[in-house]
């Protein structure tokens, strides 16, 4: 048991574990909607478009979460408005904004004089470097997302599975769609230091995709995905500590291994089961 308890003697490990669990749960719960609505590309693009906000906040000495949150929400609303009122398809609009804002972030960062180190920090996270203030931000943003998902569960359920019925019932579908986009942006900001920009998509998609192979109802899918996300976070932190590998990458690799095993051996739906 020493291997399990010894790392807990260090405060940074306790903070890292708490942050990984919170982000694993929040990303996985919201990731259920991302997977079911086919929004994976949007989530990946949004994770990259917050880079200019992060860099600007870094350069002026503000908390990174402020810049990331501002750019994340503005980008989410901008993509929603552009696809709703413009002539571009959603994936095209996302691709244009994604490429432009990410390039702007890289340009700003390269001009700051410490390009390689800082870019690696933003892209891949620094879970073992989470401070008490960072943990408070992660917990606060995570609570906002989970409470909002709980309050609007039925509405999100309808626009996900039966948007025609949602319109017939005169639900504010446009507002709900924008709200979901904003929640994704908030979640990305919360997860920024845990897995970084480059690996963000995996935390949204992988646990939820795994849960979709094991469940048939949305509440069960969310619960299983949250457990997988939290477990991946804990195991990834320990792997990072003992194997001296990047913490964000370790978390994502654990989630990916769980998905692969589930894809192969899920009862009734796994590849091996169906081929047997």
Walk me through this protein's architecture.
The protein is an all-alpha fold. It has a single domain (2-275), classed as ABC transporter involved in vitamin B12 uptake, BtuC (Orthogonal Bundle), CATH 1.10.3470. Helices cover 82% and strands 0% of the residues. It contains 15 helices and no strands. The longest helix is centred in the N-terminal third of the chain and has 26 residues, at 11-36. The termini are far apart. The mean pLDDT is 88.
Features:
mainly alpha, ABC transporter involved in vitamin B12 uptake, BtuC, 82% helix
Give a quick summary of the entry:
With 276 residues, the protein is mainly α.
Give the topology.
Blueprint: H1 2-5, H2 11-36, H3 40-49, H4 51-60, H5 64-85, H6 90-111, H7 115-124, H8 132-151, H9 153-161, H10 163-168, H11 173-195, H12 200-212, H13 218-243, H14 247-265, H15 271-275
Helix pairs in contact: 2-8, 2-11, 2-12, 2-13, 3-6, 3-12, 4-5, 4-6, 5-6, 5-11, 6-7, 7-11, 8-11, 12-13, 12-14, 13-14
**Mean pLDDT value:** 88
Number of strands: 0
**What kind of sheet is the major sheet?**
none
- What's the CATH topology label? ABC transporter involved in vitamin B12 uptake, BtuC
Q: Topology as H/E string?
A: HHHHHHHHHHHHHHH
Q: Number of folding domains?
A: 1
Shape: globular
Can you tell me the CATH superfamily? Answer: ABC transporter involved in vitamin B12 uptake, BtuC
Question: Residue share in helices?
Answer: over 70%
What is the C-alpha radius of gyration, as a whole number of Å? 19 Å
Counting DSSP H or I runs of 4 or more residues, the number of helices is 15
CATH class: Mainly Alpha
> Looking at the chains present, what oligomeric state does this protein adopt?
single chain
- CATH architecture, by name, is Orthogonal Bundle
């Amino acid at each position: 048991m020493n291997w399990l308890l010894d790392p807990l003697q260090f405060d940074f490990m306790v903070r890292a574990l708490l942050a990984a669990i919170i982000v694993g749960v929040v990303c996985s719960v919201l990731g259920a909607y991302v997977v079911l609505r086919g929004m994976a590309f949007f989530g990946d693009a949004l994770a990259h478009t917050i880079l200019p906000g992060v860099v600007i906040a870094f350069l002026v000495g503000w908390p990174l979460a402020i810049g990331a949150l501002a750019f994340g929400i503005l980008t989410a609303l901008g993509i929603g408005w552009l696809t709703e009122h413009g002539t571009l398809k959603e994936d095209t609009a996302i691709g244009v904004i994604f490429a432009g804002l990410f390039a702007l972030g890289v340009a700003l960062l390269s001009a700051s004089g410490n390009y390689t180190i800082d870019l690696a920090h933003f892209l891949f996270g620094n879970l073992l470097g989470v401070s008490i203030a960072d943990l408070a931000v992660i917990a606060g943003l995570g609570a906002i997302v989970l409470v909002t998902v709980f309050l609007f569960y039925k509405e999100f359920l309808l626009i996900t599975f039966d948007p025609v019925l949602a319109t017939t019932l005169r639900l504010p579908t446009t507002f709900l769609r924008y709200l979901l986009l904003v929640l994704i942006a908030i979640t990305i900001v919360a997860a920024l230091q845990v897995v970084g920009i480059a690996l963000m998509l995996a935390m949204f998609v992988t646990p939820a995709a795994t849960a979709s192979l094991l469940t048939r109802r949305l509440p069960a899918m969310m619960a299983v995905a949250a457990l997988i996300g939290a477990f991946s976070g804990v195991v990834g932190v320990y792997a990072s500590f003992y194997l001296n590998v990047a913490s964000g990458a370790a978390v994502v690799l654990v989630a990916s291994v769980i998905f692969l095993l589930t894809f192969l051996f899920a009862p009734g739906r796994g590849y091996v089961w169906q081929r047997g």
